[in-house]
């Protein structure tokens, strides 16, 4: 059974003087454990779509279905990682990580031990009693990842979580996040402007046209690339071929000459 269905999602933003169409008839499905990236020009509705899936805003039309049932009708856990880590500066790293269990009133020694193990797994051994201002940007994002994972999310939403980091740290975190998500078989959607990041981390890439956001083209990443670490993926012989195809699709959109087909075109390598 399909795990997640985005079914004909459209969204309008209203203000006093005008209406803005942000999304137009977005539809795709995901299997459990799949990783999809959303690419497209600024303003095409990528983050809006994540906010709809997260339940932060209600779509104008369409449905988000989890295992065939409306997501908003169910109790569910969705993890959301943003460009900024949003760690509370007055709380220790462990207290920041345990924020979800604390709010849910389920914080206990067992969950704290799990958090410590996750911190160790992401290379943050010994920082649990430190405060965020004593950590680098990359370390803070690792802590934010653990804070997200400790809540055992069914779906992980990633809104450009590496874009504020230097390139070296960004590549290391791509490898780490990819490894963690595969280990825990998490279903994930990444919003990014980085074609290389999308290719190296994803099973599929969905390219959205400019506002209103609609599916322009879907690319399936070759299995040979999916089996590599993101860093090594960029060195694979098949990487450049799909990079040029995705780049070409983005160029068509930027040139304003995109011809949109219902449901988008689908390419496999």
Automatic annotation (TrEMBL):
GO terms for molecular function: ATP binding. InterPro entries: AAA+_ATPase (IPR003593), ABC_transporter-like_ATP-bd (IPR003439), ABC_transporter-like_CS (IPR017871), ABC_transporter_ATP-bind (IPR050166), P-loop_NTPase (IPR027417). SUPFAM superfamilies: P-loop containing nucleoside triphosphate hydrolases. Signal peptide: none annotated. Keywords: ATP-binding, Nucleotide-binding, Transport. Gene3D superfamilies: P-loop containing nucleotide triphosphate hydrolases. It comes from the Bacteria. Residues 4-235 form the ABC transporter domain. Pfam families: ABC_tran (PF00005). PANTHER family: ABC TRANSPORTER ATP-BINDING PROTEIN, TAURINE IMPORT ATP-BINDING PROTEIN-RELATED. This is ABC transporter ATP-binding protein. It comes from Aciduricibacillus chroicocephali.
């Amino acid at each position: 059974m399909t795990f997640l269905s985005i079914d004909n999602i459209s969204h309008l933003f209203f203000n006093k003087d005008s209406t803005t169409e942000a999304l137009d008839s977005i539809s795709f499905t995901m299997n459990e454990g799949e990783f999809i990236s959303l690419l497209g020009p600024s303003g095409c509705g990528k983050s809006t779509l994540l906010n709809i899936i997260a339940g932060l805003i209600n779509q104008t039309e369409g449905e988000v279905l989890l295992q065939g049932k409306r997501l908003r009708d169910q109790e569910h856990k969705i993890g959301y990682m943003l460009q900024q880590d949003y760690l509370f500066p007055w709380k220790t790293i462990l207290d920041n990580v345990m924020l979800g269990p604390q709010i849910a009133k389920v914080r206990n020694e067992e969950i704290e031990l799990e958090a410590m193990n996750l911190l160790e797994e992401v290379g943050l051994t010994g920082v649990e009693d430190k405060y965020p201002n004593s950590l680098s940007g990359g370390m803070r994002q690792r802590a934010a990842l653990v804070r997200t994972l400790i809540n055992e999310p069914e779906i992980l939403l990633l809104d450009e979580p590496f874009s504020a980091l230097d390139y070296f740290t960004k590549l290391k975190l791509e490898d780490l996040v990819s490894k963690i998500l595969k280990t825990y078989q998490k279903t994930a959607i990444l919003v990014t402007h980085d074609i290389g990041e999308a290719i190296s981390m994803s099973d599929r890439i969905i390219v959205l046209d400019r506002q209103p956001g609609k599916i322009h083209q879907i690319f399936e990443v070759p299995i040979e690339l999916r089996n590599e670490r993101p860093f090594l993926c960029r060195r694979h012989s098949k990487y450049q071929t799909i990079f040029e195809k995705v780049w070409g699709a983005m160029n068509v959109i930027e040139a304003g000459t995109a011809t949109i087909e219902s449901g988008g075109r689908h390419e496999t390598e």
